Structure formats: structure tokens, C-alpha cells
Amino acid sequence: MSQTVIKKLNELLAVYQMANIQHQTHAALFRAWGYEKLADITVEHIADEPETITALQNRILDLGGDISYTLPQPAFGTDIHSAFKEDLALQMNARTKLNAIVELFQAEHDATSRVLVENILKDEEKHLAWLEAEMSLLERLGDQLYLAARL
After folding, report:
1. For residue 108, how many C-alpha atoms fall within 13 Å in the half-sphere facing its CB?
2. Left (φ > 0), alpha (ψ -120 to 50) or beta: where does 2 sit?
3. What is the CA radius of gyration of the chain?
4. From CA 14, how far away is CA 20, in angstroms rounded?
5. Most C-beta atoms within 10 A of its C-beta, which of 41, 82, 84, 148?
6. How would you classify residue 34: left for phi > 0, otherwise alpha for psi between -120 and 50, otherwise beta?
7. Distance between CA 39 and CA 33 in Å, rounded?
8. What distance in Å separates the CA atoms of residue 18 and residue 5, rounded to the nearest whole number?
9. Measured CA distances, 91 to 72, 110, 128 (Å)
10. DSSP code of 79?
């Protein structure tokens, strides 16, 4: 199989490992700050990340490749606004990259990897929509009202 596909899958794996760390840390921060509902909702939205990581690892191995990557640095927020901002930037970047990878896998005639990434993209779109809605609510309601509902 194409080394290009394996390389891209490893790049995705690195990003998802980093994203999982970032999201789990934000959920822990929300809980530590006393926003239990927000932490629970966040954990619910990221519950499938370990499955995505496993699926990417399995696909690399199925193609006869080696798992090899360097983790990018996660970006942690220091308050609700910055945590959402960092996660939103991550999700928006993911959408662009995942669409490009789908096209690359199509050109490489690797339907299995393409479908895997398309399914990841569908999930990322849902997470992005949730983050955009939460950011909008936070902006419209202000910190006090928004956070009061997420204690």
C-alpha cells in the first residue's frame, strides 16, 4: 500500500492523540472549576476519541505500516473562553485537513481508508457544531448565566 497513505494516517493518529489529551484536560479543568455538567457534556462529546485512535492504529497496521509519529503540543485553556477557543481552533483545522485527506485517499484508490476518514469527519462536524453553539451561548448569555447552567 502507498506510503503516502500510511504517512497521512500516522499524522492523523498524532493529531488525535494530542486532541484526546487536550479535550480530556479541558474536561478535568471544567470539573476542577466546579462546572460538573459542562465536564460531563465534554466527556460525552469526546468519548469516541479512543475508538478513533484505535481505528487509525489498526488501519496503519492492516496496511503493513509502522505506527510512528510525534505528538504536536496540545493547547490548554486557562478559563472557559480560552478552552473553547483552543478546542474550536483544533476542530476547525481538523475539518479542513480531513477533507483534504479524503481527497488524497480517493486519488490513492484506498476506499477503506477514505471511508474511515469520512466517518471521523462526520464526528468532527458534530463536535464542531456543539462547540460553536456553546461559544455562541457563552457570548450571548455572558459568563455568569452560561456557567450557572453548567455547574
Report:
1. 21
2. beta
3. 17
4. 10
5. 84
6. left
7. 10
8. 20
9. 15, 24, 6
10. S
Residue 128 C-alpha cell reads as 464542531
Set of cell numbers at residue 116: 474511515
Q: 3-class DSSP state for residue 1?
A: coil
Nearest to 94 by CA among 73, 70, 113, 121: 121
Owner of C-alpha cell 500500500 = 1
Its pTM stands at 0.91
Residue ranges of alpha helices (H) inside 36-110 are 36-46, 49-62, 80-107
Spatial distance between the Cα atoms of 103 and 16, rounded to a whole number of angstroms: 19
- Rounded CA-CA distance 99/70 in Å is 22
Output the pLDDT for position 106. 97
pLDDT at 149: 85
User: Within 10 A of 52 (CB to CB), how many other CB atoms are there?
Assistant: 21
- SS3 assignment, position 136: helix
pLDDT along the chain (151 residues), means of 10: 92 96 97 95 94 98 96 96 95 92 97 97 93 94 89 80
